[in-house]
Write a structure and sequence with these properties.
heterodimer, A: 156 residues, mainly alpha, B: 281 residues
Chain lengths: 156, 281
């Protein structure tokens, strides 16, 4: 129970132990724990940031989708308009073509009719001359009665 | 009957005395084996405290080699719990920041607890083992030696004085002695009061730990005596179970005591050093 020089031995041991504990136990372990704390804080911050970015991305995706839909609708409307225009144009040109063909056909018909008429007139004149010759039993001088013939032909 | 009592009493005193005698080297009395002057070494105290210190260091180095921030093992978790407990105590009671305080507190808590724990090892086991290798005196609990407890409390005291002077300045420290606690009109009383207050710190720290552990050791010795001296013949059937029950009870209670004493030493160290760091006293 008496105080001896062991006191100083124990003091030295105590001081050395404090130094060692600080060096090999407290220092590394508390540094590691601080690092862990930082890592957790960083992780939480990153999670928050990621969540925020996800929200932004979702919003952007929604906007893009909306724009695309609007564009698609516009393109569709344009296409429909253009289709109806093309249809109208086709109809108009078909109608014009039909008209043109009709005109041409009519003109031809008229032409044919006129030609037939001329031909008939010629026939009638010669027939009338021949008929009159038969009736008069003599040769009708066509030249002498040319005026009369012309009148006749015109009346037909 | 008187003869038997005398014999048993003599044996008891001798048994206890023997157990409370340190392994002495240097200026020692050859008969009683007690230190006769200051220049005597208590080899058992030095050996066990240094062995436990080496144990702490070796354990720390081994633990430090595979520290993991992501997936700590059960051992690391356990140490981290102790470390966080100590850090929490320092944070709660210590004003400001000083990187020395927390390692100091951790060292005190762990070392004192381990030295106290030597008390829970059966009192006759280590002296018996030492007897086989020719060592006939052994006191295995370093904290039942005043040299150990005072070594720690005086070291803390030196730190208290150092930080008092560092934080308050030499003049401020002197002023604390002169004008505290009764103001400038009672300077002599203040000096005496402050001196007593300051000196009481290391003394109470060292003596509290020593007293608790010494008493605990003594109770263990007395319990050991129940089976040792009274158990003769048929009486052993009664005394031996009693010894086991008492020993178990005291062991469990003492587990609380050694932890509490280590904790008190640590907390008071933090508090005293905290007081040394506050400049307005």
């Amino acid at each position: 129970m008496n105080i001896t020089v062991s006191l100083f031995g124990q003091m030295l041991a105590f001081v050395l132990l404090i130094w060692f504990v600080n060096r090999v136990l407290w220092g590394p372990l508390s540094a590691m724990m601080a690092e862990r704390q930082k890592r957790i804080a960083d992780g939480l911050a990153a999670a928050d940031k990621g969540k925020h970015e996800l929200e932004l991305a979702e919003k952007r995706a929604r906007d893009v989708l909306k724009d695309t839909k609007a564009q698609a609708a516009e393109i569709l409307a344009q296409a429909e308009k253009r289709a109806s225009e093309i249809a109208e144009e086709g109809k108009a040109s078909a109608r014009a073509e039909g008209e043109r063909l009709l005109q041409a056909a009519r003109a031809e018909i008229d032409q044919e009719a006129n030609r037939a008429k001329e031909h008939l007139r010629g026939q009638v004149a010669s027939l009338a001359t021949a008929g009159a010759g038969k009736i008069l039993r003599r040769e009708v001088d066509a030249k002498a009665h040319a005026d009369l013939m012309k009148d006749l032909i015109a009346q037909i | 009957m008187s003869e038997a009592v005398k014999q048993s009493g003599g044996g008891t005193v001798e048994y206890i005395q023997h157990h409370l005698t340190n392994l002495c080297a240097g200026d020692c009395d050859p008969a009683t084996h007690q230190a006769t002057s200051f220049w005597a070494w208590h080899l058992d105290t030095l050996f066990f405290s240094v062995a436990l210190a080496v144990l702490i260091i070796a354990f720390s180095i081994r633990l430090g080699r595979n520290l993991s921030a992501g997936a700590p093992g059960p051992l690391q978790n356990f140490v981290e719990t102790i470390l966080e407990f100590v850090a929490g105590q320092v944070k709660d009671t210590f004003p400001g920041h000083n990187p020395l305080i927390a390692p100091l507190a951790l060292t005190i808590f762990v070392w004192v607890w381990l030295m106290n724990f030597m008390d829970l090892i059966p009192v006759d086991l280590l002296p018996l083992l030492a007897g086989f290798v020719g060592i006939h005196y052994l006191k295995a609990v370093p904290t039942t030696d005043l040299n150990t407890t005072f070594a720690m409390s005086f070291t803390v005291f030196a730190l208290i004085i150092y930080y008092n002077i560092k934080v308050k300045g030499p003049v401020g420290y002197m002023k604390m002695f002169l004008f505290h606690p009764f103001g400038k009109f009672l300077v002599p009383v203040n000096v005496v009061m402050s001196l007593i207050e300051e000196i009481a710190k290391p003394l109470s720290l060292g003596l509290r730990l020593f007293g608790n552990l010494f008493a605990g050791e003594l109770v263990f010795l007395l319990i050991a005596l129940i089976g040792g001296t009274m158990a003769v013949g048929w009486a052993a059937a009664f005394w031996l179970p009693l010894q086991v029950i008492l020993d178990l009870g005291w062991l469990i209670f003492h587990l609380l005591v050694i932890t509490l004493q280590a904790f008190i030493f640590m907390v008071l160290t933090i508090v005293y050093l905290g007081m040394a760091h506050t400049s307005d006293h």
